[in-house]
Amino acid sequence: MAVLNPYLSFRDNAREAMTFYQSVLGGKLDLVEFSSFPEMPQDSADANKIMHAWLETEDGMVLAGSDTPAGMAYQEPQGISVSMSTDDGTRAQAIWDGLADGGAVDIPFEGAPWGGRFGMITDRYGVSWMITENAAGE
After folding, report:
1. Mind listing the pLDDT tens digit for each residue in 26-81?
2. Strand partners, 8
3. In 10 A of CB 77, how many CB atoms?
4. Which long-range contacts link 23-28 to residues 24+ away (Cβ below 8 Å)?
């Protein structure tokens, strides 16, 4: 079995962002700092930054991320969206509302021509999300 998981890159706020995503999505969040691996060459400014974050929700979603070390180039996310689909309308609405807090609505979360509801939002960290509530029976 293969698994595809979104892995988000941040400059200096992975801990804050991943904690926010945990508050929206729920689940268990594991955070590993660069300082956990002193044998790896690193800038001392990166010691308390996040080398790897792993959020796994009770319904099986996984979202990972990390801070980009000071010595590496970083670009704001562009050209990609995290897509989340569920049959649970209450969960879809709660996730939408959580991501909208401090974010910008690109396409309102409304009825879609193919059934169910769909919307797009850019969250407070500049990450684009597509949220789908599947039509009943899909």
Report:
1. 999 999 999 988 777 677 888 899 999 999 999 999 999 999 998 888 888 788 99
2. 65
3. 15
4. 23/98, 24/94, 24/95, 24/98, 24/99, 25/55, 25/57, 25/61, 25/63, 25/95, 25/98, 26/57, 26/58, 27/55, 27/56, 27/57, 27/58, 27/61, 28/55, 28/56
> Are the C-beta atoms of 74 and 68 separated by less than 8 Å?
yes
Domain annotation for the chain: domains and CATH numbers? 7-67 (3.10.180.10), 81-133 (3.10.180.10)
- pLDDT tens digit sequence for 72-126: 888 887 889 999 999 999 999 999 999 999 999 999 999 999 999 999 999 999 9
Two tokens at 77?
């996310």
Q: Which two tokens stand for residue 58?
A: 């009770």
DSSP letter, residue 39: T
